[in-house]
Structures are given as structure tokens and as C-alpha cells.
Amino acid sequence: MNYDLIYPGNPDQYLDDLCRRVDQGMDEGLLPVEVFRDDAVFRAEMERIFARNWIFVAHTSEIPNNGDFVLRRLGIDKVIVTRDDSGQINVMLNHCRHRGTELCHHDKGNARHFKCPYHGWVYRNNGEWAGAPHLKDAYDGPLDKKEWGLLKAAKVESIHGFIFASLNPEIAPLREYLGGAAWMMDAIFGLHPDGMKVIKEPERFIVKADWKSGAENFSGDAYHVSTAHLSAALSEFIPGVNQVSSLASGYDFGNGNSFIGHALPDLIAPMFDMWGYTAEQREKFDLSTLDEVQLEMLRTVPPTIGTIFPNFSFLRFPQPDVPGQMPIPFTSIRMWQPVSPGVMELWNYEFEYACLPEDFHERAYLAGQFGFGSGGIFEQDDTAVWEGIAKVGGSPWARTKGMRLHYQQKRGGPDPDWKGPGEFHPSIYGEYSQERFWRRWVKEMREGKGAVPSVADQCLGQGECE
N or C: fewer beta carbons within 10 Å in the chain? Predict the structure, then answer.
């Protein structure tokens, strides 16, 4: 939308009005299409959401040794995630402080230093400036190593090996920030003290869809399965998959953090409690850190899908590694990486418990790829329909008519006897999780307004601008 035609020279006014319409629209169960594929919205999201919140960037199993690094994304920024020579984890902007060119062009590796390909400035793997060519002639000696080091994330923390970074120095500690979602992560990823590890490098591919479509879908949409994924049932890849929404429940922890749970023993077979890990595999697990509510949840309605706002999603579901074979559990972490308005890069990480044997890791990886790899039967379905949402978001006809999307499913309400954090909804129908995703989006878009000062404000009276 060309907001200059309606709000000449004032995108903030346009965004304020859009946030008001989204907020009021959720009261009616309606969502304006302008939230998708919009230049002003996208730019604001990068500053107001991705620059202010905790964002997942890597897993500790990817950088186990001092000097290891991976190249990742924080919003639209490429970042270098390193384990420096002291073992500390750093998240640094991948741009040289001299002339701003990209510093690192390798997806992963091990290095004590990073050298800029333009003028040769060198940085240590903790981000400190280390040197430059012709120091005496060009600069009369070394520069201040801290002042001219790489820009670093204000906060870096991990939970169960998942490394999150934030550019916001005032943000709450990660576990506090996650609230009840941390309790759920304990139940999903905390079944063994050695934790999980990345099986292979994350798969990455471009999808012409808005990052929010993936995040919102994984927050609580099981309703689409019987239609969008009917081919999985018709092909007998997963017989009966079109009935999963009827046996789906919701775990909502507020703030756009929510999970879908499935009664897998009823959906598949009694031995598919705890996602279908075998008795031999379970003997390796240590469940002593889980409370009674978590244990009962894993036995009856384990979490299978979920989203932690803004763009971290989880998937663990039993699937065959070979069509026709008994389903086995696989674990995928999905990152809906924003690229541009209406375009995202989908990152698919597959994980498994480090304590389980390598042959099972290989089988779990294949199971995940059959369903949710770039050519997976479910992935092809989801990405195709999400691309249509981006198209209507940019449709002049839809915008001129003020088209709003329908979020009005009937609601049964949460279980009053639930003893865990947040809410447990016996039925996934009701779109309550999706509504709360959009409420969080509005909150961040409003609170983030003005939170990122202008360049002039940042540098005023501070000499060198960081």
C-alpha cells in the first residue's frame, strides 16, 4: 500500500491507525489484510519487534568448541554467532566497522579472527578490533580495540542449548521473558541432561509468504489439516491425518506463545504417549526434573506444534521414516526469517536427543524430511497456501474494499481444572491462540514506536556512534 497517498509523509500515523484497526478487529474476530506484504509494516517490524525481543539464532551443539562460529540471522541482519577463545558465546553484526561491508561469507567454521575482504581490518572472535594493514602510515598506530569492535547483541542467553539474542539492553532475562513457555520447553527439551543436538545443518529455502503466516499457523491452527493436508491421508503416508484437529488441544501461555497438543495415544495407538519414543529409548531419559502436570501432559496430550513469538516454532510428531513403516518421533525447529515484505526464508532445523543412537538420529531426520523438508508432503501444502495470503495482503482490490479475514470460530473456553501455567483448552477450535499472537503483535508495534532512536539521537553528545 502506498501510505503516502493517505498519510502524506507520515508512515507512523498509518501504522498507528493499522494497529488500532487490528486491535479493534480482534474484538470482532476480524483481521485487516494490510498486516501482510506491506512496506511500512515490514520496516516497523524489523525495528519494533526483531530489534527489541529475544530472537533465536543458533544452538550450542553447532558451536561446541572454542573458535567455532555459524552465520545466522536476527531479523534481516546477518550475524556471526561465535564461541570465542574463552568459551563465551557472542552474537555480532556481520559488518566491518571501517566501511561496512560484510565480514564473513562462510556459513560455519572455526576461526580465531575474522578479516574484512575490503581493506583488511581484523577482529577477534569475541568481536574486538585486532588490527589493520599499514597501521603506522594510516593511523599512527593501533585503534581502540573496544571502541572499534564489531557491534554485539546487548544480551545473549540460552535455554536447553537454544541461543537467543536481543539488541535491547533492558529486556527481561530469557526464562522470565518466556514465562510459561519456558515450562513447556522444559517438558519438550529437558528429558535428558545432555539435551538435544542439531542432526544436520539447517535447511533453508525462500517462500513468497509473510513470516507471520508461518508463526501464526504454528501457534494454534490445526483446523487446516483436514483440507490442506488431505493428500497425506489419501496417499496413506499418514492415514487419518485429516482427523487430527478433532483430537487437538491448546496450551496458551499468553504473549503470543502457544502450543498445540495432540492426544496421540487416541489418534495413533496407546504406545504413542510421549510422542512414540520406545520403552528402550525412554529408559535413557531422566524425568526427575519434570513436575506432575508435565508428566501427565506427556502421557496424554503431548505438545506437538507451537510458536514462541515472534518467529520461533516447534514441531514434534510421529511420522514414518519410510512410507508404510511404523511412525517415529522427529523434532523440528522452524524459523520464519523475514526477508522483505511478503517474502521469508524458512529455516528448518532437525534435532534429536544426544543420548539416543546415531541410527535413530538418521531415521528421525528422514521422517522429518518426508513431512517437512523443502520437498516434504506437508511443507509443499503449507507454503503454497501461505503465498496466497501474501498476495491478498498486497491486493489493491482487497485493500480498497477494506477486506478483513475471519477469526470467529466458536470457543469452548479453557479447562478450569488445569494446574499448569497459562491455559489448557481441550479443543483447538476457537482461534484463541492466533488472536493472542496478533494482540502481541499490536503490543510490540505500539510499544516499539520511538524505542529505536534516530541516528542523530543516538550519536548526540556521544562522539563515535555505536
Answer: C
